[in-house]
Structure formats: C-alpha cells, structure tokens
Amino acid sequence: MDLTGVGRTLAEQSGVISRRQVLGRGGSDTFIETRLRRREWAIVHRGIYVDHTGEPRWQQRAWAAVLFYWPAALSHESSLEVHRIRTSGDHQAVIHVAVDQKRRVRAIEGVRVHRVTNLSAMVQPNRSPARVRLEHSLIDVASTTARDEKAIAVLADACQSGRTTPARLLDDLADRPRLKRRRLLVEVLEDVAEGAYSVLEHRYLTRVERPHGLPHAKRQRRVRPGRSAAYRDVEYLGLGCVVELDGRLGHEERLDQWNDMDRDIDSVVGGDITMRLGWRHVLDPCRTAIAVGRLLAARGWTGQLGPCSKRCPVHEKGDLPAPRPGRTPLFTRPDGLSA
Questions:
Q1: In angstroms, rounded to a whole number, what is the distance separating the alpha carbons of residues 76 and 59?
Q2: pTM for this one?
C-alpha cells in the first residue's frame, strides 16, 4: 500500500480523502476502518473521510462535497469563496456544487447540487478543489440572488477589484439567453463598463440622472488635484460640479471623513463644487434630481429637467433657477445639453 501517496492526497485536499482514492493507493476497507476506530479519521459523508475528529472546517466541507459527487465542482457562492470573492449573507452555510445535467444524485445535508449542461466547459479542473469559472459563478450568483441590489453589488465589486471585466461577463451572458434576470444584468454590466462601480452609483445613474434628463456625467475620472491621485464618482464636465456618492459602508471611519474633506477642498480650490449624496438621497430620486438640477443650472446648465413619471414632482418646465447672467457652459453637447 502507498502510505506516502495517501498522506500526500490528504495534504493536497485539506485533510479530506475518499474511499475511491484510498483504494486507488492500494489501501482497503480494513485500513479505513482501522483509522476510524483509532479516531485518526472521521466520516464526513458516506465514503468521504477527514483526518481528524471534530467539526470540519469550511474548506474541508467543500472538498468533501466535491469528492462525494465527483465528477463535480464548486459553484455559486462556494466557487466565489475559493476564488476569494466574498458575498453578503451567510455564504458558508451551504456548499454549492455543480454536476452534469444527466446525472441522478441523492441529496446530503449541507450541500446544494446544481445540475448543469456542458459542465466540463465551465469548470477549472486544474484548480483544487475544482470550481466553476469565475465569470460563470458571478453570473450564477447575480441571477439567483433575491435582491437586485445584491446582484449589482456582486458584479460591480468583482469588476472594481480587478478580478474580471464587464466585457468578460457580457461574453458569458451572451451564451445564456434564457437566464433569469438577464436583461438587468446586461444593463448593470454596461453601466459598470461606463464607470458605475457600486450599487449606489448605479442607482443614482438609473433612478436620478437618466429618468430626469440630467446631463450625462463622466464616471470614475482619475484626477490629481494634490499629491495623490483620486477618482471622482460622478463629474459633470464643463460645469465644475462633482457628485460623490457615499454609501453606508466605506465612509464611516474618521480617516475616510478627513480624506473626503481634503478632496472636497481640492475641488473647490480647482474651481469645482462637490455635492455629497448618500442612500437617503438616492432613495428619494425625484427630490435629489431637483437638487442636482438646481446646482447644475446655477453652474451654467441650460438643459431641461424632466419628470420620470406622472407622479414625479418635477414639472415639465422643471424646478430650476435660471442660469446666472454672464455664465455660460464651457462646452455643449450636440443635443443642446451642457456636458
């Protein structure tokens, strides 16, 4: 029997091994029973063992699920976990695995099985444990999550961190025409490609700016007002107006607040004005559109604010002050709006 090979397999698989692998190394059921009797190993699932007693770690549970359903691969939130992309919620409670559509498998506690077509084409078999490709896993999670906000966050965060790109995700979506929530995901990825990198930024774009006829802004523009570079969330070029979108998380620490103030001062010194908006503002999109429109009009915007619906408080003529005499936009878009 190849004891060295058994030990190597255990080391490579976070201390988890299958009966099939033991037999493949020349072992026997008697060898396995001896390890269990001595409490050197413990049963995770039928035919799957871990080299210690006590509660298995998440990585060991993941290995055990893949080995139990082999050939299989981690999918959905479990795939993102091993790709080192975290999602909100209790993402470790259930192990998600993908198996071929034609297989008939039995359920085991703590594991959710997804039967998929053409499994081999979407799996990275050379990774340990085997997992579904990153882009496919991101789309899977975004299309099955209960809330649109989480779907947006999953895709935007992965792109913002540089782990993937909107183009790669759109390529994956192109091969999945019947996917749930596909239209929303395509729209989100097109917005992310434009620079809307967070849920809050996407909501501002789709619920405040576009529906109310505000001018098209530049997003995530890199500037260097001081010693270090910075990125502006939303910038209305030519009007000297910047909108910074501060979500509930990420701008609560004192250092972040000081950095925000420094950036705002740099903007003022450079001739720009900054409006900071949070979730409370974006969740009241009509009122926020009026406020942003008034500011842009005061900075020289000559466009027309419009209502997003019949109940929108923005009237056809808009609720904007006239531009200050003598101030004109630095440049104008072909449609007549200041850019």
A1: 15
A2: 0.71
